[in-house]
Amino acid sequence: MAVHAAHRCMYLHRLVHSRNRDLLVKLVKSSCSRIFFTASMRSYEDDGQSQESLKLRPNKTESQALLIRRKRPLSPLERISSLLPQDVLSPEVMQLREQEQHEEEAEKCDPAVVTGEEDLETYTGPGTAEEPKATAFQHVEAQVYPTLLGESLLTSGELLIAEYRKNRRVEFRKMFQLQPGSRLQSSWGIIMHEDLMGQPAGRFLKTSRGVPIFIRRASLEDYVLHMKRGPAIAYPKDAANMLLMMDVMEGDCVLESGSGSGAMSLFLSRAVGSKGSVLSVEVREDHHRRSVKNYERWRMSWALRREQEWPNNVEFQHADLCSSSSLLAGRGFHSVALDLIHPHLVLPTVLPHLHPGAVCAVYLANITQVVDLLEGLRCSGLSVLCERVVEVPVRDWVVNPALQKDGQYCTRKAPNLGEDPRSQEESSDGANRENNFGPAFGNVPYIARPHPEQMSHTAFLVKLRKFV
């Protein structure tokens, strides 16, 4: 049928160009006019159905109704009939043509009519007001956000974290310092720093490619994990357990040997507060400089964020505790944190300045170092007890609602206890329609499994307690 119709259209097209009037008139009167009339009537029936459906939807405006009733593309026979003179067409076809012309003229004269190429969301009629559209690189200075008590807007010099998540997994994470004239670059686009200044933290901002990036302030944990390093850092999970072992409180005086990149120094600084103090000793000069820079950078960002200074309670010293007993002269410490390759070599110098009953927490990378430490304590006869040797594992989990292949939520199905399954489906569908956020509470199953990317071993923690 389709091939036959195509050949007929090609034949009619040749007749039009050959100007064989008599034969063309016979064919048009017998087939073309009848087909055109039938197709036009179907088009008007479709328009009538669309108008009836619009009556059932009172929220649709007249302009939206005209947009929904888009013109049907012309068939080849209708195109050929439009090339024919009017005297060879039937009266029915002429009447339909006149009605279409009147409707087109009315649409052109009415300024409130939306054409088929426009978008309903961007259309601005006579009764609506235009809203300015801000692009990803446009900075609106006059826009003021409401702030809560104690909340501050982003300012130049702060440390921020940019995150992009796809399918509930972090695909991109970066720490950067907010500076005028700079920009955040990634594989997902660019964000100018000026677009972030003066806005609240914890919001999504689209890049030049339209990808939403989540912007928030960097916490102390984020800063320790993303700051520039020299040696390996004490990870937050281990540092937190060391603080519990040492029972560090506000106002304590703590000794740290092995500043490294300054991670443990920052955690100790926050724990002791403005009334306490931390003495951090590092034997290597490059590690000493790195720890001082990281500490000062965090203090500067904190002052801009909270409008108050971070306590300057850490004293960094470049020395070797094995041969610098004069550095500890006249001092007493509530607790000691050691991050050294051979900690048993400095214990004879450190223990005399540790309060009786206090704890010395040792951070060691492998189990052979733990064995060497315990063997050194046995041979030296120091007055310390080894209370614990622990490893701190952290296992991340993925807990997400179950989804179907089309992206819809899976729903729990109640067991069939002799009821009609159709009634159960109708009741479940009715319950799901009541909630705008998907199925009702408790109807969606969840899938829980360990995260495919796990943090492996980081260190062993040894808890030593001094006795007299």
Provide a compact summary of the structure.
With 468 residues, this protein is an alpha/beta fold. The protein has 12 helices and 15 strands.
What does the model show?
This protein is of the alpha/beta class and 468 residues long. α1 runs parallel beside α4, α2 packs across α4 and α7 crosses α8. The chain is elongated and about 125 Å long. About 16% of the residues have low confidence. It has 12 helices and 15 strands. Helices cover 36% and strands 20% of the residues.
Low-pLDDT parts are 31-71, 109-142
* Helix percentage range: 25-40%
Q: How are the strands of the largest sheet arranged? A: 9-8-7-10-11-15-12
Strand tally is 15
Query: If you average the pLDDT, what whole number results?
Result: 78
Features:
468 residues; alpha/beta; 4-stranded antiparallel sheet; elongated
Write the layout of secondary structure elements.
Blueprint: H1 2-18, H2 21-55, H3 62-68, H4 76-83, H5 91-109, E1 159-166, E2 169-177, E3 183-186, E4 189-192, E5 203-206, E6 212-217, H6 220-226, H7 236-246, E7 253-257, H8 263-272, E8 277-282, H9 285-306, E9 314-318, E10 333-338, H10 347-350, E11 354-364, H11 367-380, E12 384-391, E13 397-401, H12 421-434, E14 446-450, E15 460-466
Parallel strand pairs: 7-8, 7-10, 8-9, 10-11
Antiparallel strand pairs: 1-2, 1-6, 3-4, 5-6, 11-15, 12-15, 13-14
Helix pairs in contact: 1-4, 2-4, 7-8
